[in-house]
Give the backbone structure.
Amino acid sequence: MTELVETAQIKGQRYLLERYQRPAAVLLGYEDFENLVEIIAEQSDREFQESLRQSMAEAKSGKGYAKGEILAMVQEWEKEEWENNSPGE
């Protein structure tokens, strides 16, 4: 069992455990488990899903931003954040 756990943890191998020739449990690394929990949480978050659908629709219709535009916006936000949080003001 130790070898299976190490393989799941280090190499990302996943194991389906059966009982009476039927799936009963899964052995996977903790990082894989965390990723699955995050995916499930995102899928059950209706607001997130609606936002994602809207973003995909906008991207398909050409209502998006180019990489350079996004970088410029982020730099501007960072500049404003720095100016608003500078000591002495």
User: Anything to note?
Assistant: The radius of gyration is 22 Å.
